Amino acid sequence: MAMIYPGRMTAAVEEDFVVFLIGMRINKFWKVHKWLPVARSMLRMLDELYEHPELGLLGHEQWIGRTTVMMQYWKSFEHLENFAKDTTSSHVSTWTRFNKQINTSGDVGIWHETYLSGKGRYECVYNNMPQFGLAKVGNHIKAQGNYLSARSRINA
Known about the structure:
This protein is an alpha+beta fold. It has five helices and seven strands. The protein has a four-stranded antiparallel sheet. A hairpin with a 5-residue loop joins β3 and β4 (69-74). The longest helix has 20 residues, at 32-51. It is elongated and about 55 Å long.
């Protein structure tokens, strides 16, 4: 079980970073042969990214349901873009296969959103939580002093 940090904590990230939200939506549950390979391909990509930290993934969190959501933290947009376009990475072959097998059938939906962030452009708080999100990829610190309020955390 993950260690719970009692009280209010926050994260301090000194460098710029990218928040990348990505997921899929199962539109036709009975077409397991369509959506299960899509889900498995994400696991293969994560394995590749964690085996090669130089690719730029800092960490991730994930929620599973009809619509899955994965929140990833990257060192930079360039790292994310390079991984997406690198023909030797698992992403390019996965994307090609998706477009051949699923394309516009409507069986499975995929989505992503990208946000550029950095010092002074984010704030976060975690109450009675294990290390989570930015607190796992940045410095996990007590939300006190200059980190007490949302306004002060943004300006810290």
